[in-house]
Every structure is written in structure tokens, then in C-alpha cells.
Design brief:
The structure holds two protein chains of two kinds.
Chain A: E1 6-11, H1 14-30, H2 35-55, E2 60-69, E3 72-81, H3 89-92, H4 106-113, E4 116-122, E5 126-134
Antiparallel strand pairs in A: 1-2, 2-3, 3-5, 4-5
Helix pairs in contact in A: 1-2, 2-4
Chain B: H1 6-25, H2 37-52, H3 57-78, H4 83-125, E1 131-134, E2 137-143, H5 148-164, E3 169-176, H6 182-197, E4 201-205, H7 209-217, E5 226-228, H8 231-241
Helix pairs in contact in B: 1-2, 2-4, 3-4, 5-6
Classes of the chains: A alpha+beta, B alpha/beta.
Bound molecules: adenosine-5'-diphosphate (ADP) and magnesium ion.
């Protein structure tokens, strides 16, 4: 395996999310992830990319790649946008909080599904999530 | 970037074949010359494949530009006796690669657009049929993407079928939905609530074990939805709900 394989997708509309989801399923499968982890990873991709579509005007960028962290292989997801940002990150990271009558579990659920999860957001500047799932 | 992969290497060789052929027959070193048709087609193909695979356009451009430096040692050896000739050959090849880089970028963009258009079309033709599978039982298999628009279709079609067939039970089969995320889950709960208003109970079938595990982690509460693992179990549940039972003929 190599860390050079990297995929990038610009996400603007719902269909882009579906495409990204399918590619994430393929990538995790080809990399030898187990069924449950493949499903997890694709779910997180779907959640984070849906946030690009539903919480920003212009969408954003999703990338995924193989990455070694503390001696283990895994897949790293990066999802970033230059949208409105999140005013209260703690609130957004708690279950059931949604500004659009969603279920509000996308961000907190993604954190639980991944082995590592980092989010930063600045109002008026944008939001960036970097997450990693061990193989 | 590190050493080129095996496919990159194969591409290099194929590229050089076509380039040499072009240079031998072209009247002038311009990429539009008919002699370079093979090379142009080849690069368009590579760019297209890379677009479909989600490579960065810049990575594809870098790949093309890498040919430029690859020539230098070969040409230097070939024309070691004539530095002027060597310079001019390097320039000719460099020009060709530059022109190719532009072509490749266009091909990349076109392929990307084609992918998107094709997928949009494929999605639109996916209808949402409802089937009356028993007296007072309708079934709807969901396939593929459930975006906002299809969620509306599903809602409309299912409610229509329920009232048309005076159904008491509707089975929604999600076996062919690749991922049940929070939005899909929310759509499902809305369909269930609306169907109840029409007096029909919805049974959702086909959650995979992975889906169930993930939904729990997402903290999605489906306890108010009747679910069954398989379509078969769902049908049995529907019949039980209606007070019916399928038995062997005696
Ligand atoms: N990329 C983003 N840009 C701006 N706000 C966001 C972004 N992602 C999430 N949010 C905010 O965080 C909230 C919680 O997100 P999430 O947990 O995914 O729930 P939901 O999408 O169902 O609302 C959203 O309602 C939105 O206000
Ligand atoms: Mg969300």
C-alpha cells in the first residue's frame, strides 16, 4: 500500500454526495476493510458531504486517502468548505442539534464512528473536518 | 511524488510509441496535426479514466508534464555530439508536451461533466414502483440514491398506492439502498408517520447488520418503526398484522 493514492471530489449537490459515497465504498473495499468498517466509513462520508450541500451555499471539497497513523493503516477523510462556519461548535457536536430540522446526529455520530475526529470552524471563514478510521 | 506506479509506466511506454509515430509523420510539431491523432486520443482516454477515478486535475497535469523531464537524458545521450541539435529537439518535444497538457485538461473536464450527466440521467430513470403484493398489502422496493427529490416521489407514490389499494400495510424494502444515513432515516420516519395518518402501518425491511450497527452509533432511534431483516420476514409480519397466515395445503 502507498500513501500516494488520493481521491478528491468537489461536492455541490446531492448527487455529488452519492458519487462520493460510492467511491468511498469502493476504496474501503479495495483497501481490505471489513464490511462493518466499510459501511461506517461510507456513512461518515455521506454525513459530512451532506453537510456541505445543506449547510453551505457553494459546497466544498472532500478528499480521502490511505494514511498510516501510530503504526496502523487507515483511511483519512478531509471535508472542508469556505461556508458560513459553525457558531457554537460544542452545540453542533451534541446529539439532536440542527439548524435545519435535521436529526442533528451527523457530526456527533461521525465522531463516534471514526477512530480519530478533528473539527475546526470559524464563522464567516469555513469548516474543516479531518477524520481517520483504522483498518 | 515517489516512483511511478506500474500503470504509469505502461502509460509512459504507450505514450512514447504514439509520440514517436506522430513525430515521424507530422508535417510540423503541432499537436493538431493529423499524425498526432493517436496521441491525442490516448491522452484523452487517460485523462477521462483519471477523472472518473477522482484524481486531482493537477495530478494528471503533473503526470503529463513529467514526460518533459523524462526526455532530457535520452535526447542528451542521442545528440551528445551536437548540443544545438539537442537543444532544439528538447524544445520541440517540450512544445508538444505543453500543448498536450492543455488538451488533457480539457479532456479531463469533459469527462468529469459526462460522468455527472450520465449519473444524473441514470438516477432519474430509476422509478419508484409500488406493487400490490397481497390484498391490502403494498410493497415498494427502494433502489439507489434517496435524495430530497426521490424522497418526495417515494412519499407521494406510497401514499397514493395506500389509498388506491386501501392498503393496511406497506412494506418499504431498503435492501438496495447502499447507505442509511441520518437524512435517509429522517425521510423514512416521515413516510411512516404519513402512512399512519392514512391508516396504514409501514414495515421497513432489508436493513443489513452493518446498517443496524451504524444506526445505533449514530444515535438514530428507529424503535417506533416496525423493521424486519428480510423481505420474507416483513411479508410474514404483514400477514400476521392482518390476521392472516400462509399454511401448507392439507
Ligand atoms: N459544513 C458546515 N458548515 C456550517 N454549518 C454546519 C456545517 N456542518 C454542520 N453545520 C451545523 O451543525 C449542525 C449540526 O450538524 P449535523 O450534526 O450534521 O446535523 P444536521 O445536518 O442534521 O443538522 C447543522 O444543523 C449546522 O447548523
Ligand atoms: Mg448533517
Amino acid at each position: 500500500m502507498t500513501e500516494e493514492t488520493k481521491f478528491a471530489f468537489s461536492i455541490h449537490q446531492e448527487y455529488d454526495v452519492y458519487h462520493a459515497q460510492q467511491r468511498a465504498l469502493d476504496f474501503a473495499r479495495d483497501t481490505g476493510f471489513r464490511r462493518a468498517e466499510i459501511y461506517r466509513l461510507a456513512t461518515v462520508v455521506t454525513e459530512l458531504c451532506n453537510n456541505l450541500v445543506f449547510h453551505t451555499q457553494r459546497g466544498g471539497l472532500f478528499t480521502m486517502r490511505l494514511q498510516h497513523r501510530s503504526g496502523r493503516w487507515g483511511i483519512e477523510l478531509t471535508v472542508e468548505d469556505d461556508g458560513p462556519g459553525i457558531l457554537d461548535l460544542d452545540l453542533a457536536m451534541s446529539d439532536g442539534f440542527s439548524t435545519v430540522h435535521g436529526l442533528g446526529s451527523g457530526l456527533p455520530g461521525s465522531r463516534r464512528l471514526m477512530d480519530e475526529f478533528h473539527i475546526e470552524s470559524k464563522p464567516g471563514v469555513g469548516t474543516k473536518v479531518i477524520a481517520w478510521l483504522r483498518q | 511524488m515517489g516512483s511511478p506506479s506500474e500503470t504509469d509506466h505502461l502509460h509512459m511506454v504507450a505514450f512514447l510509441d504514439r509520440l514517436t509515430l506522430g513525430l515521424q509523420h507530422a508535417a510540423a510539431p503541432v499537436i493538431e496535426d493529423a499524425a498526432f491523432a493517436g496521441l491525442r486520443g490516448f491522452m484523452a482516454e487517460i485523462a477521462g479514466a483519471r477523472a472518473r477515478d477522482g484524481f486531482y486535475p493537477s495530478a494528471t497535469a503533473a503526470f503529463v508534464m513529467s514526460f518533459k523531464t523524462a526526455f532530457i537524458p535520452i535526447l542528451s545521450a542521442e545528440y551528445s555530439g551536437s548540443p544545438e541539435r539537442c537543444q532544439s529537439e528538447i524544445k520541440t518535444l517540450g512544445d508538444i508536451v505543453d500543448q498536450l497538457a492543455f488538451l488533457t485538461f480539457d479532456a479531463y473536464a469533459t469527462a468529469r461533466e459526462q460522468v455527472i450527466t450520465r449519473q444524473n440521467q441514470a438516477m432519474l430513470v430509476l422509478s419508484t414502483p409500488t406493487l400490490r403484493i397481497w390484498n391490502q398489502v403494498v410493497m415498494m422496493p427502494l433502489v439507489g440514491i434517496i435524495d430530497t427529490r426521490r424522497a418526495q416521489d417515494i412519499m407521494e407514490q406510497l401514499l397514493m398506492a395506500i389509498s388506491r389499494d386501501e392498503a393496511k400495510v406497506a412494506i418499504l424494502d431498503v435492501t438496495a439502498v447502499p447507505i442509511i444515513d441520518t437524512r435517509v432515516a429522517l425521510h423514512l420516519t416521515k413516510v411512516v408517520a404519513a402512512a399512519r395518518l392514512l391508516g396504514a402501518e409501514v414495515i421497513v425491511t432489508g436493513f443489513s447488520p452493518e446498517a443496524a450497527q451504524t444506526l445505533v452509533k449514530l444515535d438514530i432511534d428507529l424503535s417506533r418503526i416496525r423493521t424486519r431483516g428480510t423481505l420474507r420476514a416483513g411479508l410474514a409480519e404483514a400477514l400476521r398484522f392482518l390476521g392472516l397466515r400462509v399454511g401448507a395445503i392439507t
